[in-house]
Task: inverse folding
């Protein structure tokens, strides 16, 4: 259904999902709520075979056909998500995982598309797969009709319609639905501004989410509780996720032109490689509250030692394990340049799943950057901006109030 950008080191994106396996290196997760959908679909399909029309079919066969059709529908949702994922992979965007949920699937991407065109292709791939499947099931259903096989024809027709609806539903232009992503890509392409596109995407999600809420309230008032709650959940999902992209675009606007050197801490804490962890913990971590060190060998950086690296070594070995043995070697360290835009540094840290990085200039560590520093910097800028906005408003209001 949706393609989602993973913005934080996430444990379990929605909670309570289990890993089914991996296809083409992409892990597939199933959320428990999918079981409800499976049962509901099975029941609705099985009960569709009325004894008057299908006198020859036993209740057992009804349920078997129902369950098979429901499973094929869920496989269709998975195929839709793989449409997004495979195109993303081809365009060089890493796919973290695919999760199937109560109202569809989510393909989580590790980074943003580089271009509007790439974004458009990734977003359109899912609905394209759904429409192709709808067509394939339609052909199957026509063949079954020609061969006079009503027991095959009924589920195939059902799957053709279900895939058609899945494709159409996802084209609703409300971010993060595929339609909203397509809209974002088009605005991005036309205006050349990603921020403008993000703004539009966020707005589209708010509007569509609101429409879903309104219909949900109407349905609940009509006594259709289940459908109402269903739409409510979808509306909530859309509003929530489009709110995230709105926040993201606000953040990018605040950090425009800000470089890493403006947010970093230029006190680099160094430890000699031969120093034992016990001494580092006692004197530096507990003694001075430091938690991130550049390990040096006669002034040359050899690696990075963070609190995580220290804790990974069993406590009773701290007396004889040296910093150089517990560190992440310099060749594997993710480092940033002081002139790197802060948003890019943050994206790099997110992609590589690290919370602090050394800032390196001409091979020499000149500072340390952490997520916390970026957030603090962002908060300061947001406060300053809201202060300036208020002052401007007051200045503008003052003459007219007289
Ligand atoms: Zn989709």
Result:
């Amino acid at each position: 259904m949706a393609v989602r950008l993973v913005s934080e080191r996430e444990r379990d994106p929605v909670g309570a999902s289990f890993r089914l396996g991996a296809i083409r290196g992409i892990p597939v997760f199933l959320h428990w709520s999918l079981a409800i959908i499976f049962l509901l679909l099975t029941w609705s399909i099985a009960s569709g075979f009325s004894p008057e029309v299908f006198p020859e079919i036993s209740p057992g066969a009804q349920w078997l056909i129902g369950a098979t059709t429901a499973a094929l529908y869920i496989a269709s949702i998975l195929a839709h998500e793989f449409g997004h994922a495979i195109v993303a992979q081809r365009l060089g965007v890493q796919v973290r995982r695919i999760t199937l949920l109560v109202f569809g699937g989510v393909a989580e991407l590790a980074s943003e598309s580089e271009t509007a065109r790439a974004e458009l292709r990734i977003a359109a791939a899912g609905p394209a797969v759904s429409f192709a499947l709808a067509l394939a099931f339609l052909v199957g259903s026509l063949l079954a009709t020609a061969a006079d096989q009503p027991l095959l024809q009924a589920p195939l027709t059902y799957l053709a319609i279900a895939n058609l609806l899945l494709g159409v539903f996802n084209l609703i232009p409300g971010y993060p639905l595929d339609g909203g992503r397509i809209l974002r890509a088009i605005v991005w392409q036309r205006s050349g501004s990603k921020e403008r596109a993000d703004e539009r995407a966020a707005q589209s999600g708010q509007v569509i989410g609101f429409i879903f809420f309104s219909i949900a309230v109407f349905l609940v008032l009509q006594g259709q509780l289940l459908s109402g709650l269903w739409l409510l959940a979808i509306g909530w999902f859309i509003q929530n996720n489009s709110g995230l992209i709105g926040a993201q675009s606000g953040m990018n606007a605040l950090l425009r032109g800000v470089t890493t050197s403006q947010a970093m801490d230029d006190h680099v804490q160094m430890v000699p490689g031969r120093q034992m962890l016990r001494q580092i913990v006692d004197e530096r971590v507990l003694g001075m509250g430091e938690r991130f060190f550049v390990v040096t060998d006669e002034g040359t950086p050899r690696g990075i030692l963070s609190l995580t690296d220290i804790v990974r070594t069993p406590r009773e070995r701290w007396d004889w394990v040296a910093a150089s043995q517990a560190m992440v070697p310099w060749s594997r360290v993710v480092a940033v340049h002081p002139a790197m835009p802060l948003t890019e540094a943050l994206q790099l840290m997110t992609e590589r799943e690290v919370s602090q990085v050394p800032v390196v200039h001409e091979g020499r560590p000149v500072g340390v950057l952490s997520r916390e520093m970026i957030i603090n910097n962002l908060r300061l800028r947001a406060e300053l901006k809201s202060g300036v906005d208020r002052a401007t408003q007051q200045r503008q209001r003052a003459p007219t109030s007289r």
User: Anything to note?
Assistant: The chain has 13 helices and eleven strands. The pocket of zinc ion is lined by residues 1-2, 80, 84, 126, 170, 178 (CB under 6 Å). Residues 82 and 126 are 7 Å apart (CA to CA). The first strand starts at residue 2 and ends at 5.
